[in-house]
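[job 0412] stage=fold_complex status=start
inputs:
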Amino acid sequence: MTDTSIDKLARATPKTVARRIKGLSDRGIAWLFVAPTIFLLLAVNIFPLIWTIRLSFTDFRVNRPNRDVEWVGLRNYERILTDPDIWATMQATAHFLFWTIVFQVLIGFFLAFLINKKFKGNDLWTTIIVFPMMLSPAVVGNFWTFLYQPQIGLFNYVVAFFTGVDPASFSMIGSVNLAPWAIVIADTWMWSPFVMLICLAGLRSIPDSIYEAAECDRASKWRQFWTITVPMVLPFLMLAVLFRGIENFKMFDLVVQLTGGGPGNTTTLTSIDLKREAFERWRTGYSSAYAVILFVTVFGLASIYVKALNKVKER
Amino acid sequence: MKTKHLTTAVLSSLIASSAATSALAEDLTLCWAAWDPANALVELSKNFEAESGHTMNFEFVPWTSFADRMLNELNSGGQLCDLMIGDSQWIGGGAENGHYVKLNDFFEANGIDMADFIPATVTGYAEWPKNTPNYYALPAFGDVVGWTYRKDWFERPELQEAFKAKYGRELGVPSSLEELKEIAQFFQGRDIDGTTVYGAAIYTERGSEGITMGVTNALYNYGFMYENPDKPYDLEGYVNSDGAVAALEFYKDLYDTATPPGSSNWYMGENIDAYKSGQVALQMNFAFIWPGVEADPNVGGGKSGYFPNPAGPAGQFAQLGGQGISVVAYSDKQDAALEYIQWFAQPEIQAKWWELGGYSALRAVVEDPGFAQSQPYAQTFLDSMAIVKDFWAEPAYADLLLAMQERVHNYVVAGDGTAKEALDGLVRDWTEVFEDEGKI
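[job 0412] stage=fold_complex status=done
writing structure:
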């Protein structure tokens, strides 16, 4: 009879440890192994969440350690939900979220479709295209502030070249009307390659035999695209939308570097506003309520979306 | 035998003295903003290291994140900083929340007299409550908003002629804010040596304190007051007075008609860049930049001039900048930190501080007969320091500042509503803050 690795491990276990484990059931041993992870999860996720919810019902301010903390009930929630400035911030976030996802899905899918074709230099082009997403968002933000400079920025010169307008006559990040689009463009430039990679994985997972069968049935390319490619890539695309949606909901660094939330509040997204409340105004209780509202919103929307995603996958 | 005893005694005393020195030598960390004066302070502090045996470490943070980073440090009771050169507006919070060590006894014991410093810097950087002899800092760096202009452009005959033809007066240092606006508008979009240049670089930054530090230079001079002088925290009619409304409209007009396109989020760094690169004829900025301007190959060496913030209909004032140096209450090296302050307060060290590019607040330095001629900008610095006003230094200053940043930026840059609506909104915001603070 040969020794298995488990036998070897059992023999190598010190006798004192073996004696202690001997009295434990399988369930006990399982708990022993899972307990550190559960403890860590409770310590870094669940406890802070419960603490934040508790703080959200108080007027606690972390920069006033000597002040008494008062229980204010739902006042923080009421103030947030009736504050027009916060609704304006929500609108700015919704605008950013919607348009970045639309553009990134369209551009990402289009790029994936092109890259999926077999041609010379395919790998090189893939590397070049994914380059923006390898950069730090703060660097991208800074980089685009230069591109958008009315006097020296390349972006303004490109627009001027195609439209004939004076490049110094408009400011992408200084104009109330253009700034929301300026952040959409920069984010789309950075993250469309990510959507492209996910779509590419979807496209490459479609077996050639399906297309061959469609060819035999004399289905046109157009019909193949709508009846084979799109439905089979859809779960991947939905996953990309989920990732980008969650990421862009908490977008901070790129926009702070690019516009600082301005002009006015036109590009102040919820994460920027929340950071100001928590770490500049130091309204800890208020900002905890704000964080809870955002958490519930994202969690709720993501749950509904994941259910829809599962239904699509089941089809 | 005698020699053996002597050797042992000498060795013992050497070991004992080296042990005593190493017990006293501390590693001190000084926290400040990352800017030119900080480099000068590193140079200056080498003298302290040599004299005291302590080692100085420095934690410098860029201005735009300085308050975030350092107030976080103080609020969390962090021990990173033994010495803090904190912004003037932090003094209330530093004192009331116990972040800074009260220095009265130390000053008294070491003969440091606050009467030896420029009065505005003592009130602005060291006292809390204001105008009471309770000191939490030593004035470390005097600073004030002033103006820099392209003297070489102003002296060009063709520009002087064109300006006189348009405005009926000489092109020179403006005597009022209205004149300043006209000069900036005159340069806006003008072709100079084949390059399109613009009028003035002014503070418009949204994220930290930029636009507030800029717009107050107009507000003060048109009659804005933070509160009723006879009734603290009474804001209505003072913050949103007719003069204040006119001042805000002036600042917006200046922004709309005489600043470079895209300057919607500019503060110290952007203004310096625009000026040094020859984009603008004038720049609003704190005085700390002047040594750098003088040394610059493009705009220094006599090409630039300096003048204090011009007067408005209600007087002539300028926004105070600058900082005091405090000992952090959470430091366990407070004795060594106090030693640094004692060393820094010496007149010869303060004189050296000015030589290196640091703006000393010691009267013995600035009132020296040779001071005004010591640098081309020295007289402007003195004139500007005589007209300073500062923002709120209340413990709730961050709330007050953010409210003002938002209201003013929304009106001036984003064009949202009217000046009156912006200031009425500011009164509401500030009243709410003071109510939350239990002040009213």
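[job 0412] summary: The interface with chain B takes residues 59, 62-66, 148-151, 168-171, 173-176, 256, 259-266, 276, 279-283 of chain A (CB under 8 Å).
[job 0412] exit 0
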